[in-house]
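REVIEWER CHECKLIST
Item 1: Sequence provided? yes
Item 2: Single chain? yes
Item 3: Sequence as submitted:
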Amino acid sequence: MSLQGEGLRQGMPCMFVRFAGCNLHCAWCDTRYSLNNSQGVETTAEEIMQAVIVSGMRYVCITGGEPLLQKEELVPLVAAIHEAGVFVDIETNGTIPFGEVQEYASVCMDVKCPSSGEMSDLSLLDSLRPEDSVKFVIGDEADYLYMVEVLAAHPDLRAPVCITPVFGTDAKWLIETIIAEKLPVRFQLQLHKVVNIP
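Item 4: Structure as written out by the authors:
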């Protein structure tokens, strides 16, 4: 349990459920330990559900790795958490369709920018709803220009957009540029890293 460090619910107390295994290898990944399934602890959906109930938390964030790689286990788990009256976010790298979980959860799609060395499936942006969100992690000017291009190509995007600089990079130019260009985005720093909590 911790505080949500980014996204629409930044700062809220949250229980994190981290799925092991990822289909990408982003250059600036901050959870490399979750990339390989062998680094995880095999846990049943019932055990996770019990942990959620015992925690008393009203907000759960399912993250990874890439949770949607384990969709067969994920969908019933998310449905059960939702039915228990707990709000659920699912963080995804935007490479796997997520429609099956949207009945039970809000989706945060992390659009991979060029400096990550990876690429998301931008067609999935059309599946996002106002209660979902899009995240861009910006490492340099090329990433920023890519984000502007993606947003221009998706004028009907319904989900709010959050952007954050790669942790440790200079954010001042990004803030100044967002203000100067009047972009309809939400700038954020990764709160959990700023205040040094897990």
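Item 5: Key structural point noted by reviewer: Helices lie at 45-55, 71-83, 141-153, 172-181, 191-194.
Item 6: Recommendation: ____
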